[in-house]
What we know:
Layout: H1 16-22, H2 25-28, H3 32-48, H4 54-73, H5 85-97, H6 99-102, H7 111-147, E1 152-157, E2 160-166, H8 167-192, H9 211-217, H10 228-233, H11 236-262, E3 270-271, H12 290-313, H13 328-350, E4 353-354, H14 356-362, H15 370-379, H16 384-401, H17 410-416, H18 430-436, H19 445-461
Antiparallel strand pairs: 1-2, 3-4
The chain binds arginine (ARG).
Residues 24, 28, 84, 111-112, 115, 320, 322, 324-325 line the site of arginine (ARG).
Amino acid sequence: GDIRLWGGRFADGPAEALEKLSASVHFDWRLAPYDIAGSRAHARVLHKAGLLTEDELHQMLAGLDALERDVTSGAFQGTIADEDVHTALERGLLERLGKDLGGKLRAGRSRNDQVATLFRMYLRDHARVIGGLLADLQEALVGLAEAHPDVAMPGRTHLQHAQPVLFAHHVLAHAQALARDAERLRQWDARTAVSPYGSGALAGSSLGLDPEAVAADLGFEGGSAANSIDGTASRDFVAEFAFVTAMIGVDISKIAEEVIIWNTKEFSFVTLHDAFSTGSSIMPQKKNPDIAELARGKSGRLIGNLTGLLATLKALPLAYNRDLQEDKEPVFDSIDQLELLLPAFTGMMATLTVHGDRMAALAPAGFSLATDVAEWLVKRGVPFRVAHEVAGACVKECERAGIELDELTDEQFAAISPHLTPEVREVLNVPGALAARDGKGGTAPSAVAAQLAAFRTDLEQQ
Ligand code: ARG
């Protein structure tokens, strides 16, 4: 029989080419449990409005339970002829309850308000999953920082040696970015906790159904949609979700890029655990950072999913348009990719061997203490403009002689400037340079310890 929900006014069935084009059941099937939950809530408001008897409600709920079991076991599946998950589940219900009772559930709802509601529920669940995986990664980064509290490394700008920083400080910088992404997910969730159910196709329902009851039933803390047109047609919640997942991808890609560089022979800052690296089919010696590279690559894909979705949404007239069926695959993909990537990436970071001696040895290289010479002069009353010039002259002399700043003799210092007394050596060492930066957010061990403690508290409170 014709299972279309809209066969009444049509003389002919759909062309095969249309059916194929139209079908979404192969990707929206993952919404099935949410569709069934929505149907239960809808059955309850139909009953509340006097459109289902007590007995019919019980049969309906039992039918939905049976359908859910068959969906879970795989005994019931959607087909291409079903078009979408909503139609397939309606068929399943009709098969179980018969047309008279089964056919009552559709009153006062549309696939337009259904899909907008289910999509929110699905994304909210996965926001929680991704938030948990993100917390695991933050935990791994905090663990790295805690395991190496005193290791200095070259801090860089423009990828050039800039000033020494603590490795823990550097790692926590990444963790801070991820913490903001996690916060973005929570804020998105609060904004998305609004149910479009009851909006119908676009205009609401004339059947006296209670949208607020459905919203409460389905766990939407923000109640039901204020505007049925907006409820069915808006997808900014999808775009925002795609942005946050893309941002997570970008933030992870930045860590990935550094791990790739740190893992080179030239840097030798880290060694990857065997279980989280790969070999080469031809070069026996190779141990490759594939997880980091996949992270870097997948971030491009996540950005693509966001931009593709925004292009789909651009200039759509109100209210629902079938273009909106294109809203699901991009974010489903972003979710799938992140849920694959994050555990592997966290494993890689948690098992990283850090070569602290190598990092520390390079921390003062490249004249990275020149700023400390200048600031030391400033503390002795020399204007910064002069101090900057004097420290620059020290670097110039070192480059000429092929030495580092702390290798300049007292005579060489004095020849550069009479202000450069031998006491300048107090700041020409990495521990001194680090310890001096002890304001909030600075790289001094005391400041980093405070940052770490605060970060840990926030992470545990999430
Ligand atoms: N499968 C559609 C979607 O994902 C929902 C169905 C609405 N279809 C319609 N012709 N109004 O957007």
